[in-house]
Amino acid sequence: MKKRIVSTLLSIVTVSNLITGCSSPDIRTASGAPNSSGISNAPDITNEYNPSNVSAETLASSNADFNSALISYIEQNGFAEENYMISPTSYRAAMALAIVGADNATKEELLHAMGFNDMNELVAWYVSVTESVDKYNEWLKDAQKDFKENREDYGDGASKPSGVFDLENSIWRNTTNATGELSQDYMDYVAKNFNAAANNVSSDKITNAVNDWIDENTDGLIRSISDDLSASDLILINTLYLKASWKNDFDEYCTEEGDFTTIFGDTVSKDFMNQQEEFLYYEDDDCKFVVLPMNGGINAVFILGDATGVMDKMSEASYEDVAVSIPKFVTETSFSQNELIGFCMDRGATSAFNEDADFSIMSDEMDLFITDIIQKTKIDVDEKGVRAAAATAIIMKAGCAEIEEVKEFTADQPFTYMILTDSETPELLFYGQLVK
């Protein structure tokens, strides 16, 4: 079963971690004055970009194209018949950190590969991500305050509202291998705008240091990104972690064992969560989907059938009384076989991965290029909500590269799912499928 999503969602991403502050970041150029193509010729981080120049319609369209292209590429390269989940947000955000450090053709190619026409669009997208993080954290703060002040109104079995929506970034320089230093301007810039600290670690300690940092920032969902990072010169890391509860919990006593038909036609047993409530629901000859709201401005969308154009159909969905039956599941995925590099190259970004790379803004002492992009994800869905995490690492070296009736939604067959923000331009935090 082929599933494609053409959405108005924003995507996340990869190599570097994002800021979680409560105000819009002060984004500046990674270069000097841009030329007519929007690409600078001078490695100077000085000029400011203005994301307000980018309309919501422009951003939604570019995000839809990027998300659709990424999901299509992943499924065409070994994952069409596998359970998987990818984080477009973590991928795109991490690549933003590399783009900031790139110049000339390398910068332009990576911008276009990530679905941006220029830095203004990248900045506008980034600001929208941080706004969604802020919205969630503001909800959590208010909910916890209300719980404290009105504890007697919550009932004996109530617990304090909890959750996490966090984006983090870090940079790791291998002091044993690296022959030069990072630009101070670059380090100051990413620290201010991406909250990304640069760490200097020897080759015998860098693997454990990076993996421990990822483990901590994903609350143990992702324990490591690689077993051996000692040969790398520079690593850019992004993590995305979400722990969100359903607005309407699934009662555990309603969970029952049932049959799930896999993509191959086999029948396997799974534990199905069940509830009947009023949810946004849509159905046509190609698909049906239900939107399950989560606390803090997050939605989970479960799709049966063809997922193409679901976001276009969202405006046609209506609130219906829906009997929902969804299996509990845990999915772990690793993109570590050059899938994410292949996606970039398929979209015209080639110079970043060979000796032609220009990361001179990042460092004029090292001829850096990208040797690998790795993403690991994990999602755990149960009666209380969703825990999901992504870690994306961009590994760099200096040298030469190798390359009104009650509706029913019973997900007892292969289905697609999305975790997205409930905002004007929804951010696609996670996208996946369960097929077996």
From TrEMBL:
Residues 66-436 form the Serpin domain. SMART domains: SERPIN. It comes from the Bacteria. It holds the Pfam family Serpin. GO terms for cellular component: extracellular space. Gene3D superfamilies: Alpha-1-antitrypsin, domain 1, Antithrombin, subunit I, domain 2. GO terms for molecular function: serine-type endopeptidase inhibitor activity. Belongs to the serpin family. This is Serpin B. It comes from Butyrivibrio fibrisolvens DSM 3071.
